[in-house]
Structures are given as C-alpha cells and as structure tokens.
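Hi support team,

I'm opening this ticket because the web form for multi-chain structure prediction keeps timing out on my end. I have pasted the exact lines I submitted so you can reproduce it. The total is 721 residues across two entries, so I didn't expect it to be a heavy job. Is there a limit I'm missing, or should I split the entries? Thanks in advance, R.K.
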Amino acid sequence: MSNKGQIKVLIAKPGLDGHDRGAKVLTMGLREAGMEVIYTGLRQTPEMIAQAALEEQPDVVALSCLSGAHQSLFPRVVDELKKRGMDNVLVIGGGIIPGEDIPSLQEHGVSSVFGPGSSIKEIAEYIRGKVAKKA
Amino acid sequence: MSGSFDKKDLQRIEQKRKDWEEGTLKKSLDRFGATENPNEFFTPLDVSEFDFLEKVGFPGEYPFTAGIYPCQVPGSGPVTGGYHIGGGGGLVRAGRYLGYGTAEDTRDYYQSEIVRGRTGGPNIAFDLPSQIGLDSDDPLAEGEVGKAGVAFDTLADFETIYEPFQGENNLDSIASNWTINAPVNVVLAAYIALAEKRGISPARLRGTLQNDIIKEYVARGTYIYPPKHSLRVTRDVIAYCTEHLPLLNPISISGYHMREAGATSVQALAFTLANATAYVQLGVDAGLDVDSFINRFTFNTLSGSMEVLKEICARRASRRMWAKIIRDKFGSKNPRNWILREAGGFLTGAWTSTSQRPLNNLTRAVIGGVAGALAGYIPSVEPPYDEPLGLGWSIEAQQLAEDAARIIHYESKLGEVTDPLAGSYYIEATTDLIEAEAWELINKIKEMGGSLGAIEKGFMQLAVAQSAYEYQKKLETGEETVVGVNSFTGEQEIEVLPNRMVPYPYDATKRAEAEKKQVARLAKIREQRDNGQVNKILAQLRETAGDEKANLIPLTIEAVKAYATIGEICGTLKEVFGEYSEYGKI
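Hello R.K., no limit was hit. The queue was backed up. Here is the completed structure from your submission:
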C-alpha cells in the first residue's frame, strides 16, 4: 500500500484477447473508488505483466481474459510473479471463465474470479478486505 | 414544407394537450403523489414537419427508411437475415459462425453440420493468433491456438477446412464468410489459391470478408499495423476484388463490436457510417468508380440493446443516412447502390445476455427478433441463450433460437407488413432525433480528419469506454435494471437450466490437444515446402510494400501458394508498416 493507505491495482490483459470493456470499466471504477489503478493495455505476456508489477509494486494484480486461454495464462502470470519474489501480491481474475475452471485457478494462486455481472462495488470490497488482512 | 397536418389542426391539438396535462393527467399524477409523468406520449406536434415522401418513401426506394427491398421473401436475397427460417426440419441454417481447434477438428465439425442438414458455405471463426497474424508456433500464441476459432497458418489449413465442400457444394456453389480483418489479404489469397488448385476461376467465388479494420482499434483489438498502413491492406482487397472477384463482398462494416464494447446506439450508428465512408473513400482514391464497387459493400449488424423501440428507429435512420451519403457525398448514380445491406436482426445485441439465469436470454433475444421484424428484417433470434456460458453454443439453444424466429415469422406473421411503425408519431420523431444526433457526431469525426484521425486521436476508443462506464454506474445505482443480475435476485428466485441432451459440439479433448497438433502440422509444412522460394517471394513482398501505390494481393497469392505462413507474410509487412501500439489508453 502506498502512502496515505491508497491501494494500488495493476489491471492487465494477458494474451491476445482484445475484449477490454471489463478491464477499462474496472479501471475507471476502482479509480473512482479511491484506488490507484494502472491498466496495461492489450496483448501482454505473463512476463510483461510480472515485470510491470515488479516496477509498480501494486497490492493487487487483476487479470482479464475472454478468449478461453485463462487456464494457461493466469497460472503463468502467478509463476512469473513468484519468480520475481512477489508471492504476496493479491491476484484476481475476470472474464469468461467457466465455473468448472475456477477451482484449479484458485489452486494456482488466483484468489478469486469475478465473472460477468460482477459489480465494481463487490470487487472493491473484496480487494479492501484482502489487502487490509495482509497489511 | 407544410407537413401532414395543417396549422389549425395542430393548434387544436396543442390546446387539447395543455388541457389534458392540466386536467386528466394532473389528476392522475396527484393521486400517485407524482410531479412528473413517468411516460411519454407523442402527438402530431412532435412531427409537425413530417413529409412522408421525404422521410419514409416506398420500400426499396430512396430514402429506404421503410426497407431496402420492395418486398422480402425468407431465404432469398443477398442479405443473409432469415436464412435459417426457410423450409426443412432441424437446423438448416447456413452461416453459423464457428470453428475451433485444428483445421481437421473444424473440418470434422462442418462435416457433422452438413449431415445435420446445414447448407451453404462456412462462416469461419479464426483463433486469435490467426486474427493478429501470428503462427501457431509463435511464443505469443501459447495457450491460444484453436481457442476462439480454428487455427490458420497456411494454405494447407484451408485445403483441410474446405474438404467437406466438394461436388455440389464446391467453391463456385457456396458463399463463405470470413471474420478476418488485419490479415484479410492472406485469407483472401488463400481462398483464391485454393480455388485455382480446384480449377475454379476466382471470378466465380462468392463470400464476405469482414475487412473492417477501423472498428478493431475501437473494440475487439485484432489489429497488427498502424491504422494508416492497415487501411492500405483494406484498399488492396477492395480494389483487387472489384477487378478479379466481382461476386465477392470485400468488406462487411460493423457496429456490433463497438456496441458490445459499450457504444451507445447513436455512437455505434455514427461511428459505423463514418468508418464505412472512409472505406468508400479508399476505393474512390484508388481510382475506382463508386458504382463499380459499392454494390459489393455489406454491413454486419449495427447490433442494439433491450430498448428496442429506439433500436428500430436507429435502423430506420441508418438506412436513410447511408443512402444520403452514397448518393450525395459520393455521387452514385445507381439507386440500387444506395442501400445499406445489413445482416438483419440482432436488435438486442449479445451484450445484453447474461450468464445469470441464462434461459432469460431467450426471452431477450425473442424481443430482439420481434423488433427486427418491426424494423423491416426477416426475424432472427440471436444469440442462442447459452452464449454467455462459454465459447461454442449448444445445439439445443440453436434449435430454440431458430424456432423462435420461425414462430415470429410464420405464426405471428409479423413480416406481412413492411415498416408497420411508419407514421407513428413517436417512431418518426425518434428516428429524426437519432439521425440528427448521429450526423452531429459524424461531423465531429469529419473535423478530426474522418475515422482515421478519430482513432489516431483515441476519440472513438475513449468515447466507447466512457459509455461502458456510464452504463456500469447505472447498473450499480439501480438506474438500469437487469433481471437476475442487479435485481430480482435472492434466495426465493430459482435458477432455471434445461438438461442438455445433445453433447457439447466442441470436443474438450480435441480442444486441449489442438495446439500441440497444429504446431506439429506447421513444422511439417515448413520442412516440406521450398524455403528458398518462400524467402524469394517474401523479399519481393517486402520491396513492393514500400511502394504505397502497389497492390500487394498478387504477391500475397504467390506467397500463400508457396505455403508461406500467415506469420511470415504479416511479419514481412510489419517490417515495412510497423506495429500498432494503443492510442488513447485510459
């Protein structure tokens, strides 16, 4: 957490998927909720996302994927974060993630998955709760 | 202009309206403790300048507000809407957007569809690496091969995918649909090469390329090169098809993707028409007579929202506006070229469907189908209700969607009257209003140098993102209601999900193995082809690409025939054109 206790979030689009309505809406929404939010833009490799996280030192890395490649991409981001010593950063996911895929993602370090219809309020509350516990 | 009502009548209506507001209406509002009328009521006062011939006219005639055809017969005409409500049992629909896994997986699926009664050519969904010009063995493609569509690396993949289309379904008898934008030149070249291998003249090929790159910078994001250079590829395709493939639609301009990304009705309408104008200008600038190619321009859908009355008005406005642009701005002489050929329907869009209580999506899509019929299209009920549950649709959901369209058309007979809402005070006033707002936005884009300038400045991107956010805020405050998502939820509500009797069409094992198989397939091709020949053609392509005036399609066909990969061809052009990095990041 930065000074003044502001929560810092890195929102990232791993892979080739170009559907970023959710990522952009969440960027704007979490900013309005008082967090500092960096949005990476499209087509980020897991390495690029982890590197950005290393530089920005966010409290949260939020991943969005609607292409069906989440099962390969999300765990790879988590691994890359760990490689850089960021075991503590909260990783959450969103997009079109079938329910049956969620348990394995959680086993791989994705704390929670927010699907279509999730509200910004609910995501912000989840982040606040988790980050407060770590602090 | 005097309009349909004379002054005296209008004065009487105005007086009567005042009396009603102060009397009947006020009494009712007082009783409910309301100060403002929650409803709107339209009268001739709202359309006092209405001129039937100027604003509506006859179906199939300028300004085409009532419809682009004099009459519509299901399953006929170049517009694809309604193809699925023709005769026959089960699923007879052609053109369902599909593709997954390797070329073999998709071939097998098409084969099973044909057995199931499918007719016509394929509507190919390409995977993301293909859509952005990467080979399946590119490190960036890892995890994405065969996921959102079929993998396409070389001509060999088209040879396999099109195996089921032989004999009476050969390439000169079917029309294909290719959802491909940035690497559209490669896909066109591959289809031409495939036809030539089968001894079919390219002049006989029919189909539709999406080739609408501008909207990719605004939504969906499958761009490769910077916009200016990508538009050169667009131009090459339009010019080449006009000369050599006169039956092929070289472009399908879409509002749908921008709408899905959050654009409002007016934004989608204005941006789509502005983009379409930019594409027509490309052809004109290439020295083509507008009437020699505009007849092959098609529109994907403008899409819509659950507010279907407004969407009906937007469609009526779109037809009128496009006719005006083609006739007045481009000076087209042939009235048949002024029509906005749109795949009809889809008035509620796909973004309105929810993963919560998904069967409700059938209700939503049926409302869209009814509205489509009222807007002058043969009804189509889309998307199938289970689309938000993941990639690929169940056969049962497809059957329900298609039956719903048939019920609307045959049982409700909604298609019996053309533009049945014409002359409604509300519909005409709202059509005028939407048109005026869209022109205003189009003029703003014009001041930025047209669509190219507008995306380079990030204007469209930001406008759409802001609209998406505004809508989200309304969802969170409850100003907008979505049943089962932000309201009417709770323990007393039940989840309704029908059993699935037919297996899920996309084989999970095949999906999991696709990447490995496709990479192996590609390695074999790289080994077997004449690599010296490939390199020679790519070097020529690199050199010719530097000449802005040159059309690159002939060389691309040569490259494809030598089994150059999509990644090699796009990579070569990247060396000359550069790569796009996002503008207008938020």
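A quick check on our side: Chain B touches chain A through 42 residues (CB under 8 Å). Let us know if the file doesn't open in your viewer.
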